[in-house]
Amino acid sequence: MTLQGLLRLDGRELGPKERSLLPAQAWSQGPVSLVGPTIVGGLAAWARFDGGSRPEQVAERLALRGERALPDLLGDFALAWWNGRRLLLARDQLGIRPLYYLFRDPYFAFASRLKTLLDLARFEPRPDRRYLRAEFEFRQGYKHHTPFLGIRRLMPGHFLWVESPFRPRRYWWPAPSAAPSTRDWAGEARRLLALAVRDRAAGAGLMLSGGLDSSALAAVLCSLQEQVPAVTAVPVHAGPGRDRTAVGHLLGQYPNLVHRDVDAREYRADGGWMEEAFEQLGYPVHPTYFMDRALARALVEMGANSVMNGFFGDATLSYSGRDSLRRLLAKGAWNQSLKLISKLPWRSVFRPGQPWLQQMSERLLIGFQTLEHWVTMAADLGVEMTFPFLDLRVVEFALSVPPQEFVRGGRPRSLLRRAFADLPPEVVQRNDKVGYVSDYADRIRMPAGRSEIEALRIGRQIVSGRFLSWLETGGPRDE
């Protein structure tokens, strides 16, 4: 069930016609009506709370402390809370669960899905062409904007008291946690990642690439569950980087991995599913999301209740710092780049004069639109998608780790390699990032893959044209 709600800002009670816009199980009081997977009193939430917290306890904390209770909440959540006078909206610190809102005097409407919000508000969509241009050119610059004019995204780590003027405020900033007393950085990294996986383990299946991040998740999951469904995307073409050595060794070490290959050729990106995505999600998606959907669907068929994803390991526990070098090269800052390169193996990966903490924090403050797409896609399949490397405890620990712990002996991602040294050597020692995954990812990395990059751009142009036409005919609607 989608989190959604409607509020009359003039304080008048919602009438039967207005309440009929929401599902029958809506919770209503005076000018507000709320719907969500979880409803406790005035709290409606689409949430997975960690640390032993229950929705009832969260509602009590909000009643006692208001928005000051938000920084202490652990988990993935989008929530709405009515205190009898005002409505509070909030998203989790890293924006795993999306939340959108719209004001049409005298109504304020919100939902965790764009399509639901459009239906609820009876809103005639008009495209935000600046947003679409940025989105289709592979940028994510319009943080709180959406494809539709007038509809806003509540940003990660923000809350909004619904009153005019509407001013979302941040309640969380990336900050390092206290250093472990033993200074055993690798041991603490493993402990915290294991804790994050444990909180998400019930009925979980795994997207397994054979790379270091997903393999670390596999090691922990296999220690917690008798059987772990796991899926891997099969490359279409033979060539460099297309062996399944790493996955094969993982299957040998962890016999309770129930593994299935998903053939990319069975799920084409052109046509079909993208049109379906417009109808279901209310916004365009990257042409390669068809593979992520196929992997999630395969896990559902294998009996998984949730899908675990190793996304963003490279910005937390397996951080290498090389993003700063890549950005400089892309900008043509050759002198600075050469200074960095000359200081390898490890000093170079952290830009002189700029704290590495700031580099990681910048990445963590991005509006994770990719996460929103993934999470919504999984919800359409009836499951949750989780990201243990974006667990708040893991993130704040990663921000506290000294830079030299990430790169030792000239080896990037050293922290996670040491934390999971018991993985097969073929996994721990490999240097490539992608591993045994879908065909497009490997090919784009190769010099000959330029055509694939252009194909993706063309694909986006086609999608953008269809999307704008689709908006002009009235946008998403039920049959």
Main features:
alpha+beta, Glutamine Phosphoribosylpyrophosphate, subunit 1, domain 1, Rossmann fold, 17 strands, globular
Low-confidence stretches: 237-242, 323-356, 360-367, 435-455
| Helical stretch tally | 19
Major beta sheet summary: 6 strands, antiparallel
Q: In angstroms, what is the radius of gyration? A: 23 Å
Helix content: 25-40%
The CATH class of the largest domain:
Alpha Beta
The side-by-side strand order for the widest beta sheet comes to: 2-3-1-9-8-10
SSE class? alpha+beta
Q: Using the 3D structure, state the CATH architecture of the largest domain.
A: 3-Layer(aba) Sandwich
Percent strand: 15-25%
Shape: globular
CATH-assigned homologous superfamily of the largest domain: HUPs
Might you state the CATH topology name of the largest domain? Rossmann fold
| Total beta strand runs | 17
Average per-residue pLDDT, rounded, comes to: 78
What can you tell me about this protein's structure?
It is a single chain. The protein contains 19 helices and 17 strands. The chain has 479 residues and is an alpha+beta fold. The protein has two domains: 167 residues, Aminohydrolase, N-terminal nucleophile (Ntn) domain (Glutamine Phosphoribosylpyrophosphate, subunit 1, domain 1, 4-Layer Sandwich); 261 residues, Rossmann fold, CATH 3.40.50.620. It has a six-stranded antiparallel sheet, covered by helices on one side. Strands 4-5-6-7-11-12 form a six-stranded antiparallel sheet, covered by helices on one side. Helix 5 packs across helix 6, helix 5 runs antiparallel to helix 14 and helix 10 runs antiparallel to helix 11. The longest helix is centred in the C-terminal third of the chain and has 23 residues. The radius of gyration is 23 Å and the shape is globular. About 14% of the residues have low confidence.
